[in-house]
Amino acid sequence: MLKLSKNILLDIIKNKVVIGLTLFLFLVSWSLFSLEENSSKATLSLMNIIIIVIPLISMIFTTTHYYNSYEYIELLLAQPLSRSRLIIAEFIGIATALCLSILFGMGLPMLLYSTEWLGGYIIFITSALSVSCVSIALLISVWTREKSKGIGVVLMVWFYLSLIYDGLILSIIFSFSDYPLEKLTLLLSALNPIDLSRISIMLKMDVSALLGYTGALYKDFFGSYQGTLYTLITMLCWILVPLYFSIKIFNKKDM
Amino acid sequence: MISIQKLNKSYQRFKALEDINCEWNAGQVVSLIGPNGSGKTTLIKCILGLVHPETGNILLNGKSILDNYDYRSAIGYMPQIGRFPDHLKVNELFRLLIELREEYHNKLDYELYKAYHIDSIAHKTMRSLSGGTRQKVSAALAFLFSPSIYILDEPTAGLDPISSEILKDKISLEHRNGKFILLTSHILSDLEDLTTDVLYLQEGKIKFQLAVEQIRTNTGENKLSRAIAKMLLENLYISQSSLQ
Lengths: 255, 244
Prior knowledge:
heterodimer; A: mainly alpha; 11 helices; B: alpha/beta; Rossmann fold; four-stranded antiparallel beta sheet; 8 helices
């Protein structure tokens, strides 16, 4: 399986898309850090961009890669190789490529401009977010038959997770503002990996005061040891659960 | 060697394969023929485990292949259109497959690899190769692990006459070595001399399944393509007369 992942990874690295993504991340982070005097402000702006762009790129990249290697997958499936191993290798290959891209693209400027450990945390959470998006997109790709349909569904899911979901939560908070909803919003945020990453990054920065009472409660929860553990476990679920279903569907799929 | 029992497969309402029963042994060269969309490729994909049949079973040396993958070490498969990752170089592709099948093969068969001079294109990427050259790579890969079963989907389509002859010689050599070979082809005359058995599929059903000798004696035709055409016409005649 590792040989296979290594091959898929090498193939992806030769692919110009990942190099482009690395350059893009590098340019964005580098320009934000050099334009902004205050490095934590720059980090905040960077987070706002990254949290929208990374899921989109991860999902689209996974879907196109899966469909483009369809014949390759077919070739490998005619070999004595179990389907689970193949799909996990594909997942590991794509996820590693994206994580490396995030590490180099964002890590280098952060090393140059900011000395806080927060940078490392952001890279870690962004990578986890990216991997969970790979997992979700892989599930969608395995489940749909055509490339165009797959990309359509992926775009819709991205749109839902990054925009519509927030709107829904806001409308819930507004219409039930007479009730104590903090616990509920805490729970709801876990149902969206993008929201979860955003909140967990923001609360590591000193901007939670802007969030008012809910922010205080969040800070209380996410800032604590259990909160970090909760974030990690939920992110892990967002990676493993879609992957588990991808394997299940892929095993039963007709090529 | 391979035994297919009551195999059924449908895509939504379309029945791709209906009640397929076959019994094949080592030393046979079976030609799978039939019109487009008759289920030839679906049947091959069922044997390879690429498509899951709905009901029925496929046994290889007495063991079911369903939900199994080890058995594919005994199969060399040459697909209809060999498509490979664009960025992969020819030698990298060979290395990858050799690594993947490491635990299964003991001796590698480089005969086609040499005959097709694949060494000379080893450093080219798969994308830069022409369709025919890709077919050659595909053929060399199928024969590389000297498996006991060959599944060749339209093997000579797209090959130039010389390469096609090389491949045919190789197939007949493997046949003499007692291997089992399953072929599909639209152009029968091309593979006529190699075939020992014919399986004719139509609309997912087996129309007939006979040894070449028997087809020849039944129809009195020497040329296989003519003989099969004659058989089909007679079948048609029989079904028409039974209607009247």
